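EI: anyone free to look at a 125-residue chain?
SC: sure, send it
EI:
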Amino acid sequence: MNISRGFLIIGSLYLLVGIGFGMYMGGSGDHTLAPVHAHINLLGFTLMTVFGLAYRVIPGLADGPLAQAHFWLHQAGALVLLIGLFLLMTGRVPEATIGPIFPFAEGAVALGVLCWIANVVRAAR
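SC: here you go
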């Protein structure tokens, strides 16, 4: 699997979703989903684009299990977190139901970041 390509393509898809949320909020005047919009753009587009570019330009960074773990942990954590936040902010699911899921999603993203840091340190040697 090409880690750089995966991050760049999925990040670009999140950009489209984030723009869609922004257009909806701007057109409707309803900014209830602003936290979802911000998280989609940050966790989805911005971070994935930065990761994708870094994996492309830093030799050896995409090699090995740390890169794979980082990619899949970030994908799973971000997707669950963003869907959960959307369901919470729209009132489709009560906080008592969705709230306990957030620490797992946040933990997946955080573990992915730890893999990223360890991988950067490894590749920078």
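EI: The chain has five helices and no strands.
SC: 👍
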